[in-house]
Amino acid sequence: MKTYQIKTRDGRALHVVEAGDPKGLAVIVHHGTPGAGILYGPHIADALDRHIRLLSYSRPGYGGSTRHECRNVADVARDVEDILNALNIERCATWGISGGGPHALACAALLPSRVVAAAALASVAPYGAQDLDFLAGMGEDNIEEFSAALQGPDAIRADLTQRAQALTHLDLPTLLESMRSLLSFVDQRTLTGDFGAYLLDSFSTVKTYGIEGWLDDDLAFVKPWGFDVSAISIPVQIWQGEQDQFVPFSHGQWLRQHIISAESHLNADDGHLTLLAYRVPLVHEWLRHHF
Asked: What is the CATH number of domain 2-288?
């Protein structure tokens, strides 16, 4: 595994992690919210088997990447382009989970000459769409968090500061309790063993780096994204679980309906975490066929 600190065109640093096949097809990973560019062991092993060069980066404000205050979702495209240029990568594919989903879609929309295909797993849809009730069906914790984001920076900072305190002495029982309103049965069953340890590592980065990336993500999700998902023309997969209490099933349905090029996997038996734990190998196999 390699790590890089890549300088963006405006002088910020982006922390990038590379694993898998160093000579393979490049796939950029967009982590969830909160999180960091930490790769899950089985995803690395799968990437190696499929000859994929897996590259995960921490979005601005997370995990060693410089904050980009007031960013919108579209800003990710310039960051990813800077990563590709720094590493001499001409073309890539990309996938994002949860809060990483909109960022993968931004790359699909705004970098069609560099990104060959994209997958969004358990992604939120744009806030304010006339035919989507954004909060309907979310667990209470996420309703409270997004409601605070809608009130503005001061409200979401107060909300996330309180949430971050619960991550100070984090173990798996504490994580389960903190997510109680968000965990369907299938997701609770998934949050064990190696996958539980991986999620703990990812969430624990908030203790080291603070809430700024988390805060900027939440504000970006509830304001205009800076691109129109209906303009996406490259191949896209939309994955959504009907048992998802983090991001309601209706978000996946909305994205499927508004992205003409989308292939959808709207699964009755999946939740939120199950997509990250079990479906990434299927995503990798689909992505590699578009190079």
From this structure: 3.40.50.1820
